[in-house]
Design a protein that fits this description.
Blueprint (H helix, E strand, L loop, with lengths): L10 E2 L7 H9 L4 H13 L4 E2 L12 E4 L4 H21 L2
Antiparallel strand pairs: 1-3, 2-3
């Protein structure tokens, strides 16, 4: 996962690298890969993001838009949850 720093903005648009089987799973459910990712993130962690495919991303780019509004003392736990979900997601579809 990579992300350009969101200097002065409240939105961040991380790019996510996903295994090929995640693309197959998304297609089987008539979803974009970033929609599958966003829905599983919500289900697994309670973190809500918006699939980046709705923002006219370049072909092949997978990601999401997020807003970081939690208090600083809660931000680290949110980042840990993002990481945990990403690792589980990639392992599931490896």
């Amino acid at each position: 996962m990579t992300c350009t720093p969101a200097e002065g903005a409240m939105y961040a648009f991380p790019k996510v690298e996903l295994p090929a089987k995640a693309f197959d799973e998304a297609s089987a459910h008539d979803q974009t890969p970033d929609t599958l990712y966003a829905l599983t993130l919500l289900e697994e962690t309670g973190i809500c993001v918006v699939p980046a495919s709705g923002f006219g991303q370049k072909e092949g780019r997978v990601g999401f838009r997020t807003t970081f509004l939690p208090p600083e003392d809660e931000l680290n736990s949110a980042i840990v949850e993002f990481k945990r979900h990403h690792e589980m997601f990639c392992e599931k579809y490896a």
